[in-house]
Amino acid sequence: MSGQKTTTAKKxxxxxxxxxxxxxxxxxxxYPDPGDFPTESVLCKKYDxxxxxxxxxxRKLTSEGLIARKRGSGTVVQPATARAGxxxxxxxxxxxxxxxxxxxxISFEQLEAQEIPKKIAEQIGISPKRKWFVFxxxxxxxxxxxxxxxxxxxxxxxxxxxxxxxxxxxATLFKQIEEYGKITVTRVTQxxxxxxxxxxxxxxxxxEEGDPVLRILRCYYDQxxxxxxxxxxxxxxxxxxxxxxxxxx
Length: 249
Description:
Layout: H1 14-28, H2 40-47, H3 51-63, E1 67-70, E2 74-77, H4 79-82, E3 87-90, H5 94-103, E4 105-115, H6 118-124, E5 131-140, E6 149-155, H7 160-165, H8 173-181, E7 187-196, H9 199-205, E8 212-221, E9 227-236, E10 240-243
Parallel strand pairs: 3-10
Antiparallel strand pairs: 1-2, 4-5, 5-6, 6-9, 7-8, 8-9
Helix pairs in contact: 1-3, 2-3
């Protein structure tokens, strides 16, 4: 039928669904005592899955550094990521960026349009001459006073009408841009670099100027491979742990 769009959703493997649920539980603090994590038998019964599914899910969380499997002790939650207050983020797809957004909160302030900082423009490989829309925000984790990160986001000047509709207290910027701009995120690149905290970021993060921070620079591309958003998030090292898991075919 003309004009009708047909999509086929790829069903996510059950072990990945289980891993997502267990990850949320760990990061939510459901197991304050590392030894409280359920046994394989308990997980099989609770989620009505096979032992193979449970083991694959636990293997995934182990690779992310959230849990440890110890002979004679069972599965324990890793204190460095789950209990010390650091935000632990895995990344293998855009959905996990959204999970990061759901586990924390951020409020943006829109600033005057400006050119992309020269060093960032050179790293990405774009011209710094155009003025992009700029948003500045603090990302917070429930129960903690100091910010997890300071984020600066630049939105393409081509999206003037879309930017007018953005709610600075609302959903993730790129999801709002997708909705209001009628575009789809098809590619995200990121670069991670340890740098010295500049005075402005140090003050906002409650650290000393020059202290090390982890800068995560992300570029969002649409279905036409157009770069429409750039974000730079600055994390104090003790408040953030990063992992990447790779599925082997």
